[in-house]
Amino acid sequence: MTEWIRRLLGAASLPRAKPRPEARQAQASYDAARRELERRRARLDAALALEGLVEDMKEVRGE
Fold it and tell me: What is the pLDDT along the chain (63 residues), one digit of tens a residue?
């Protein structure tokens, strides 16, 4: 085994640094904002579908 492979394997086995508390907080805030955005998009999709259904019903009734 050549020296560079030994070094590469040694570097791969080093423990990773722990994320800083600020990074964890930022990730948590990002995840919460992402969930809120997905929730709002789902509500908008539902509202648009309902609006389309109401328009279809009006057409069927001849209104």
Answer: 577 676 767 665 656 667 788 888 999 999 999 999 999 999 999 999 999 999 999 999 987
Q: How far apart are CA 25 and CA 19, in angstroms?
A: 10
Residues across the chain: 63
Cα(52)–Cα(63) distance, rounded to whole angstroms? 14
Establish how many alpha carbons lie within 13 A of residue 37's alpha carbon, considering only the half-sphere containing its beta carbon: 6
Give CA–CA dist 26/22, Å, rounded: 6
Query: Which residues are within 8 A (CB) of 44 and not within 5 positions of it... i.e. 6 or more apart?
Result: none
Distance, in Å, from the CA atom of 43 to the CA atom of 37, rounded to the nearest integer, reads 10
